[in-house]
Amino acid sequence: MARFFNGKEVELLAPTGTFEIFKQVIGENCDAVYFGGPSLNMRLMRKGFNFSLEEITEAVKIAHGLGKKVYVTVNNLLNEGELEEAEAYLRFLESAGPDAIIVQDFAVLSLVREMGLNIKVHSSVMMNVHNVEMVRALQEMGVTRVVTSREMDLMTTRYLQQATGMELEYFVHGDMCSVHGANCYFSSMVFGMSSNRGKCLKPCRWDYRVKKDGNVYPAEYPLAVKDMFMYEHIPELIHGGITSFKIEGRMRDAAFVIMLVKAYGDAIDRYINDPVGFDRSRDTKLLYENRKRDFSTGYAFGRPGLSNINRRYEGTGKFYSTGKVFSTPTEERELGEKRVEAIREALVAVAQEKKGAGRQNGVVAGIAVHVNNMAQAKAALEAGADHLYLSGDVFEPDRPFTKEDVKELAALKGNAKLYLGLPRMMTEQHFDLYEGLLFGERLPIDGLMVTNLGAIRKFVGKGYPLVGDFNLNVYNRLSADFYRGLGVGRLTASMELPLKDLAGLLAHAPGPLEAIVHGSPAIMYMEHDLYENAEVYQAIAEEDNHYVDNSILVLKTDKGENPVYRDVHGRNHLMMAKELCLMPVLKELLEAGLSVFRIEGATYKPEQLAEIVRSYKAALANPDAATDQFGRMTPVYAGYTLGVLQFDGGSASGAAGAGEEASANEAEAAVSRA
């Protein structure tokens, strides 16, 4: 079955969460379905959902018998322990014969290529594909379709499709995230449950208050976006170069999915049959009356602002599939000695394993510092930083680093290495700007900190060594090998790695590895501008911020305050409430093979940052004294935390192991308190 309009294929892609739902949906007016298998996919929170291996095989046969397509989601990040499982699963999928798999982790793409499998690959929305360079890189790797970034407007999709010819898939209906794909680490930090591994507990749907300038604003659910609703915009989707119209909802029941398929399928058929006389709103009332949340067109026609935020309680703080709340506001865990000892033991085991295998890396360790302005940069250099990263997403009110700034720092840096950071999300205009900066007079820098696949493709081999930032989400040795193969010299480990997974990566990843060890890193990165709340709403109370200046917006619950910084591109970065500090395990990280210890310094005053850098330099010079060094440190924010190292992790994604089970139990306790 296929639909065409003016020679362009139009596919209606339906979600199915179980085999029973599939059997009801596949006979409806859709062209394709997608679902997940027993593990390694992004919907692992609801018992009884997803397909068994036998059901996958049968579903493919049924769909193909009806002339329809099947796409299987293999779209979460994999830890070291899951790579062998992934190999076996991919071999099975090749024999089962789906029309494609949907992939986030480049380890999966690497396995498909290395094993010589005849499986088409689609890039997941979690790859956050958002520029031409990324699309071209994926084409060169054999990817045949891109599920676009949720923040992409239809003018950009049209440009991407015309520039590359790539098939594009676009979410047209259902639950959306407020954060850029694979750039939300909040659930991991609080619960040890990764949003990039199918176990998000939705802190975006908590009841917050917004504070700024000493005022409190009545934004109850400022991160809880409305459901996507593109039913009335079939013509614009086709004009925007979209091949596949994707309905979100693998956790929804059959009746709800069938209603959506009938409505959207009928609308597509009516438009193809009579485009001029097309009635856009025939089933609008039906869909509106059966909505789970209010509706929005998201970013399809530009930034939606506060109009994208859901004001109805139903479906805001609850799973629409079960009626339970996702989770309740939960405090980041305090750093504790018992947990420190557990981390030390795990890392010592890694060091012993590498020594026994003769795989000590012998790399001289150093301190890297990520800075937001010249004062911080100079303070970090004076304190002895070995690597200095100039932010590509500079927080307001600071302004981007100029060419003269770079030259001044190059003259001051001595033996330190100076890197220019790139924006995390790069539009075509960003590429033009940085191409103009980097391809003319050579800058006196030692390299670039790259943040996306497109930037790697564009700037590799241009005379600037590349360092991969943490949002590349390197979770296993195969993804590390993938990026190294593209020319990235040093990689930053994913910020989401719990203890067992970090240990696994340190034990097996070749080449130098960096990790964030201190600071208040961004755990949400979003196009949505939270500062608009303080510009639109009337203040309801007065209250000062507890740990940051009143000019910085914070999201407040009874469990803490998360500062939110707006960068020069208008994007928002939500930070941890507490301060990450891995000083107590610095010696063990060093012996386990960590090469570069990174401090996220963008939010500190210069004198605070200098003191932190000096402390880590002293600890690296004398690792046995790291514990004493920690005893002399004082947190700047709401106490110290070990971040995701508070949790064990390490389980195969199909069945929770001890560490992840503990996290799941804690999450269930949070739910039950509601």
From TrEMBL:
Q: Which domain of life is it from?
A: Bacteria
Q: Which Pfam families match?
A: Peptidase_U32
Task: State the residue spans of region: Disordered.
Answer: 653-674
Question: Whose protein is this, by species?
Answer: Paenibacillus rhizolycopersici
Protein name listed in UniProt = U32 family peptidase
